[in-house]
Design a protein that fits this description.
Blueprint lengths: L1 H16 L2 H7 L3 H31 L7 H30 L5 H38 L38 H12 L7 E7 L6 H12 L5 E6 L6 H11 L11 H12 L3 E7 L4 H8 L8 E8 L2 H4 L7 E3 L5 H12 L13 H11 L3 H12 L5 H13 L10 H9 L3 H10 L8 E2 H10 L11 H14 L4 E5 L5 E5 L2 H13 L4 E3 L12 E4 L17 E4 L10 H6 L5 E4 L8 H6 L9 E4 L6 H4 L10 E4 L8 E4 L9 E5 L6 E4 L9 E5 L19 E5 L3 H8 L5 H9 L5 E6 L4 E4 L2
Parallel strand pairs: 1-4, 1-5, 2-3, 3-4, 9-10, 10-11, 11-12, 12-13, 13-14, 14-16, 15-17, 16-18, 18-19, 19-20
Antiparallel strand pairs: 6-8, 7-8, 20-21
Helix pairs in contact: 1-3, 1-4, 1-17, 3-4, 3-5, 4-5, 6-7, 8-9, 12-14, 13-14, 14-16, 17-19, 17-20, 18-19
Family: Belongs to the disease resistance NB-LRR family.
Keywords: Leucine-rich repeat, Nucleotide-binding, Plant defense, Repeat
InterPro entries: Apaf_helical (IPR042197), Disease_R_plants (IPR044974), LRR_dom_sf (IPR032675), NB-ARC (IPR002182), P-loop_NTPase (IPR027417), RX-like_CC (IPR038005), Rx_N (IPR041118), WH-like_DNA-bd_sf (IPR036388)
């Protein structure tokens, strides 16, 4: 996937070149201008070489696993591309840095930057020479037949599915062969609900056989029969506290402070479920002890409880109430053919395979071995190809070339070829989804925000970056590489997830190609050349803390992590653009941390949870002047007043403040938040007034007030002549869209 790396890099080089005129104009020193000229010359050389090479790389990708020479070439180009990216990012960092400070400070920086520009130009010249040498060496050892070869796989002209087009709106085609088991499971769950008893049902079988699909399908149908219902993914790397919090939230339990310990969580959930009928689906369970020691104790004896456990293990299946276990087997031949045809010929009314393609269809299905996930991937892939024998034969030949270590016999090659067939723009987006934990629910807006920040998305035709990114998301869903979990009323994907079998391959691919590393607490992680780090363990000590120079994104998903262990990594991560600390951070004194982050001049996205910021420490975030998105979630802010001083956060476009339990006043000085387009408050129940100074944010287009103080929402909903109501409405008259919500009163309303 070197062409995906190169594709993003070409965009960065073009962006760097747009600064050429401005950089010359700001140069007060002849030496600086001369040094800049040499640097821009090398940038243009690199851009031209990589643009010429990119089309060739797309074809080379198909051979790199089967031809060692090609593999060496592709890996070398990827390595050189990363080195070029490091030079360009340092240049952009220094260019931004010299804009700040007074006249003396700026002049001093310009003098220092003369040496920097020369050093970067020299580095880039050496890399360009190495790039040229690598290309010449490759030409000497080219495989006969490689030159001039044009594949039908990844190509830069591929058009992603439009934002309002989905091939699989109802996903009914994925339910082939589950009808009998679905009826059986529904019957077990809803029978005798009036009795105060417990029933445990299990669905088990090998990975990719359709356990989650069956459980999720039935859950959506029967949950209306219960007072409380929850569906939660467990996975191998679960943490009890995290899992209980997820269950509590799904049940609608108010868990208050994010610092609540496990024993208190159990008590709160038990009290909430007293006397109710309850349904809980636990997907992907791996340990019997989880059920016995952690799940059963949270359910009171006076409630009617129904459970569905999905697992690959017989030990988990044996926990079922007598005769309430379902073992899923691979699809029969006729069912496999039916599912395959529904997917491969989704746009054909007959949904039948033409006679000239039946032989190849049979060969594809033999490799799928009856597993729905494999059939879905190959069916979706072929649906993107012209239905001709030559096109299908080309795809089958690629499968035959695969010599990989199988995750599941016969299936790994199909999933891998589905990945390699992606247009290069989609490959980065797909691999990015693998850095999230197994079973993690991926929200559309969050994915799109990250993809744009990482430079994966380019404007096309008359579409915005967001529109292009949503088209990419739809395409990944349509190819069955992501599974749609929830859609809105008009069919737009709201959130999705990645199947664990597909994720296994994606994580392996991401790590091999330095796209990103997932740290789950096992072994030592070397960060050399790694672009993204995903921490999914509380123990961050084994991380190599001196290798964060190349990092562009850090994500932490654990329930509790000592941020001090990340200090050395953060100190060296000058190119960091995404810092997503979604775990609990209460063990760390965060205010001192933020004051030392002023070097993160490229940071675009910051998400925090449980960082316990107050009025004073929040002001230190203003040093992050490149922030485009700031998300403060449960426990991130504990102060009563939040102030935005003049000229603070000049590039911030979206601000989300959620579950700030004490926040009752927001002050915005004139000149602050000048670029803010969207502002969201959620479950800030003490917020009784609109932000003071919101009228100064003239670019603000959207305001969400979701479960803030009822007094504020009702005041805005009233259309009266009272002075107070008019005053509040006058403050927001420039905002195009204002949405309010009061969950307790079932109010969701757009008032502007």
């Amino acid at each position: 996937m070197a062409e995906a790396v190169v594709g993003v890099l070409i965009g960065k080089l073009a962006a760097a070149l747009t600064n050429e005129a401005a950089a010359y104009g700001a140069s007060l020193l002849c030496k600086e201008a001369s040094s800049l000229k040499g640097l821009f010359r090398e940038i243009r050389t690199a851009e031209a070489e990589l643009e010429s090479m990119n089309a060739y790389l797309r074809d080379s990708e198909k051979f790199k696993d089967t031809d060692e020479t090609t593999g060496i070439f592709v890996n070398k180009i990827r390595e050189l591309s990363f080195r070029i990216e490091d030079v360009v990012d340092e240049f952009m960092y220094k260019l931004e840095d010299k804009k700040h400070g007074g006249f003396v400070a700026k002049t001093t920086k310009r003098i220092k930057h003369v040496k920097v520009w020369r050093r970067l130009a020299l580095q880039l010249r050496e890399i360009n020479a190495e790039l040229e040498d690598t290309t010449k060496r490759r030409a000497r050892y080219v495989i006969p037949g490689m030159q001039g070869h044009t594949g039908t796989g990844s190509n830069g002209n591929h058009q992603a599915t439009s934002t309002n087009q989905t091939l699989c709106s109802a996903r009914e085609e994925d339910l082939v062969g589950i009808e009998e088991n679905a009826e059986k499971l529904k019957g077990w769950l809803v029978k005798d609900l009036e009795e105060r008893n417990t029933k445990v049902t299990t669905v088990w079988g090998m990975g990719g056989v359709g356990k989650t699909t069956l459980a999720d399908h039935v859950y959506k149908i029967v949950k209306v029969h219960f007072d409380a219902a929850a569906c939660v993914t467990v996975s191998k790397s679960y943490q009890v506290e995290d899992l209980l919090k997820k269950i509590a939230i799904e049940f609608g339990t108010s868990i208050g402070s994010s610092n609540m310990d496990t024993r208190r969580l159990v008590d709160v959930i038990r009290n909430h479920l007293e006397g109710k009928s309850v349904l809980l689906v636990l997907d992907d369970v791996w340990e019997e002890g989880l059920w016995i020691n952690n799940i059963m104790p949270i359910f009171p004896t006076n409630c009617t409880s129904r459970f569905v456990l999905t697992s690959r293990l017989y030990e988990i299946a044996s926990l079922a109430t007598h005769n309430c276990a379902i073992k899923l087997e691979p699809l029969q031949v006729d069912q496999s053919i039916l599912l395959f045809c529904k997917l491969a010929f989704w746009n054909n009314d007959s949904k039948k395979c033409p006679s000239e393609l039946r032989g190849l269809a049979t060969k594809f299905l033999q490799k799928c071995e009856g597993l729905p996930i494999a059939i879905a991937c190959i069916g979706r892939l072929l649906s993107c190809k012209p239905p001709t024998h030559s096109e299908w034969k080309n795809v089958y030949d690629k499968l035959e070339l695969q010599h990989t270590k199988n995750v599941i016999p016969g299936v790994d090659s199909i999933l891998k070829i589905s990945l390699e067939d992606l247009p290069y723009e989609l490959k980065n987006c797909f691999l990015h989804c693998a850095i999230f934990p197994e079973g993690y629910i991926l929200k559309r807006r969050r994915l799109i925000r990250h993809w744009i920040t990482a430079g994966f998305i380019k404007e096309k035709e008359n579409k915005t970056l967001e529109g292009v990114a949503e088209g990419f998301l739809n395409e990944l869903v349509n190819r069955s590489l992501l599974q749609a979990v929830q859609k809105n009323g008009i069919g737009r994907v709201k959130c999705c997830r990645m199947h664990d079998v597909i994720r296994h391959i994606a994580v392996d691919k991401a790590e091999k190609e330095s796209f990103g590393k997932v740290y789950d607490g096992h072994g030592t992680v070397l960060l050399h050349a790694t672009r993204r780090l995903s921490i999914q363990s509380t123990n961050a000590a084994p991380l190599n803390q001196s290798g964060g120079t190349h990092l562009r994104a850090i994500h932490a998903f654990t329930s509790s992590i000592d941020i001090d262990l990340l200090r050395p990594i953060l100190a060296s991560s000058l190119s960091l653009s995404i810092l997503d600390l979604q775990g609990q951070l209460e063990k760390t004194h965060m205010p001192q941390m933020f004051s030392s982050w002023s070097h993160l001049k490229n940071l675009n996205i910051l998400s925090l949870r449980s960082s316990t910021l107050n009025e004073d420490s929040f002001s230190s975030l203003a040093t992050l002047r490149s922030l485009c998105f700031l998300g403060l979630y449960r426990g991130a802010y504990n102060g009563k007043i939040m102030c935005f001083s003049a000229q603070s956060f000049p590039r911030l476009r979206r601000l989300e403040i959620c579950e700030a339990s004490q926040l009752n006043q927001l002050k915005i000085e004139k000149g602050a938040l000048e670029s803010l387009v969207e502002l969201l408050f959620s479950r800030c129940r003490e917020l009784k007034h609109l932000p003071h100074g919101i009228e100064y944010i003239t670019n603000l287009e959207v305001l969400y007030l979701l479960d803030t103080a009822e007094e504020l929402i009702e005041k805005l909903r009233k259309k009266t002549d009272s002075y107070k109501c008019n005053e509040e409405h006058m403050k927001i008259r420039h905002i195009r869209k204002v949405v309010v919500r009061l969950t307790e009163k079932n109010i969701w309303e757009r008032i502007r």
